[in-house]
Amino acid sequence: MTTFPRVLRFWTALLVILCMSSLDFSPALAGLAPSTRSGATTVASARDADLLVAQRALEHKMVAQKLRDYGVSPAEAQLKLASMSDQDLHRLASASKGLPSGGDGTGALIGVLVVVILVIVVLKLMNREVVVR
Fold first, then answer.
1. What's the pLDDT tens digit per position in 2-48?
2. Are the beta carbons of 88 and 123 closer than 8 angstroms?
């Protein structure tokens, strides 16, 4: 068995020492990230909370489509929201809390189908029989 020449061993050891000493060997720290307030989600009063709920309801696809069908633009709807009284705004926000907060359910349907297909593929890979009746 041949060994490295003495000069090659020296330079290899020196390179390893330099590489290892350049690494940072500080201990790993874990913890929760501090929460910060953003200007868009700061709610100072009940009116601001109701206004935020109503604006999110207006962003929903079905609501926006119905408003367009009635000839109301999104800008006009935002102006009307800003000029509503506190009582009317609270009534609108209470009524809009029942709306779905996401899309139209297509994502959930696709997710369920992907899970079903994944289960069938795993069962097929395990040589199990899949029977759909």
1. 677 888 889 999 999 888 887 766 677 777 777 766 555 566 688 88
2. no
Ordered alpha helix ranges (H), 23-105: 46-58, 61-69, 74-83, 86-96
9: enclosing H helix or E strand: helix 6-22
- 78-109: b (≥16 Cβ within 10 Å) or e: eeebeebeeeebbebbeebeeeeeeeeeeeee
Does the pTM exceed 0.85?
no
Distance between CA 69 and CA 58 in Å, rounded? 14
CA distance 57 to 46: 17
Q: What is the pLDDT of residues 48-101, one digit of tens each?
A: 888 888 888 777 777 778 778 878 788 888 888 888 888 888 887 777 766 555
Q: Please list, in sequence order, all residues whose beta carbon lies within 8 angstroms of the beta carbon of residue 47, skipping any fewer than 6 positions away.
A: 86, 89, 90
Give yes or no for a contact between 77 and 34, defined as CB atoms under 8 angstroms apart.
no
